[in-house]
Write the structure tokens for this entry.
Amino acid sequence: MNSNRILNIVLAAYVGVIFTFIFAPILFSVIFSFNSQRFPTIPLGNFSTEWYVKILNDPDIWQAALNSLIVSSSTAVIATILGFCTAYSDFRYNFRFKGPYLALILLPPTIPLIIMALAMLAWLSKLGMSGQLWSIVFAHSVLTAPFAMAIIRLRLNQMDPDLESASWNLGGSEWATMRYVIIPFCKPAIISGLCLAAAVSFDEFAISWFVSGLNKTLPVVILEIVQGNIDPQVNAIGTFVFLISMSLVILAQIFFVYRQMKSTNT
Amino acid sequence: MTKPLVVFKNVQKLFGDFVAVKAINLEIHEGEFLAIMGPSGCGKTTTLRMLAGLEEPSTGKIYMNDQVMNKVKPHERDTPLVWQSLALFPFLTVIENVEFGLKMRGIDKSERKRRALEWLEKLDIIDFSERDISTLSGGQKQRVALARSLVLEPKILLLDEPLSALDAHLVIRMQAVLVQLQRELGITFVYVTHSQSEAFAMADRVVIMGNGEISQVGTPKDIYRSPQNKFVAEFVGRNNILSGTVFSLTNLGAHIETASGTFSVNLKTNKLVKGQKASFVISADLVHLSHSNPEVQNSVHCKLISEEFVGSMVTLFLEDNSNQEFKVQMQERELSKFDLKPDSDIWLSWSAQSAHLLDVS
């Protein structure tokens, strides 16, 4: 009884420490983004939206935000299509070398980003495809497709295998079945996949920095500002990026978990 | 009956080395209620899936209206199936589920709706038409599944153990619904089940399958009273099966010598020879009970092992001194008149007409 209580306290403290380490820097970054002082020191200066005004008036940052938006949304679409096709091929078919096929598809997130970034740069420049906005899209799609694949594959696991046959049985061709049964069934997972791929791509720095050339995304711009001097603008941009990524991840969670709860009720 | 609607000709189905269905021949007539019954793994569901085009026969041919169906894709057939899992589309409402098949056939929206509503009405689930599938009870889902198939107005409806997930009292009600629908629509029902009570209660003809083969085809009464072989006799249950050799033949029947004694059996055909091995069955409800030796031809002295009550029916399990098991089925009120004690002497007897000879297998 007593030792149980001690254990509970220790575990609670442990969880608390982890959350502090993860969220404190972000929290401080948000706080300092509203601080009038140039250097992040305590005590704080006055409340100020000066840094936000500054970034909103900076055309470079607007361009970077637009680039990030284009890259992450295109990546999300491409990665989710790839992920869906892979997940479905795994669900539906048995073929030789299926094991290696799946392993290869799920591999990219396990490769250190910096190595992947270098490899992508070398490969894309050999093909004369580096330095473009869509070079980032290309590389990010490789990176994020496995996330979309994993989510959609999980969803397909929940599907009654008779559902597909039932559609054929009622006169649906294979394509009609895909359109009216498989895709609607996977819709929550497809939306989660889109959000998650967009979030990963929006945040990603290493690959973007290597292959983007002059087309900078937000994370790349942040690094460039920090490299030059200490500027609280970074905190303001960081707050935006954090909000967008978090919203995407939370949306992904909501779509996936909510649907799952609903389908366990059936 | 006219020309058969469906013909299975030497249809065999292999899964790798495993023979799921062994060269079966079967005719299904227009407008009949056919039940395919057998223990799990006997090939009954595979047979049904071949009819729906979900499996292709390994050898042999399936004809429908004289056309070979082997290569016809499932979606090009008109053989809707009611699934054991129901396989309703969880992301669609009740009415959208019912409209699905019509939509796949390219029927326009207002016509789809009209026909779907008509069937929801007929199956008494019109109040739920806009509901989510997940909010329905088992019996209601069952009706949606039926409506979804019947709205296509097929010539043949396939049903794969559709009632297995329902409570006992709902099963009886759905049986009545199914029988009434089948009579009303006059279409062919092919109903796969492992449940004797379902098959016997509804079907015009029953096909008994075992180990991928058809063991017997006949009316429920044929199968119950005159099982052709040991497999059917055992599967139908409540049968006393005795085996022995033919001792003598008379113009009325045969005497068969078994470990429990020599019994006379009436014969319909004359294919037995003296000394041949033979088995015969006596339905458990055709065996009489008495306290003293009845001094008749077919009687056995037994002791009681156990009894089993199902509603008002009692089944007694008995054994004679050669350890042959006997079953006797009777009304509970009849049994109470009999004054049965655990150690009392019991004699079983039956008439030669009640004994039914099995095919040698």
Q: What stands out?
A: Chain B has a mean pLDDT of 89. The CA atoms of residues 22 and 213 of chain B lie 6 Å apart.
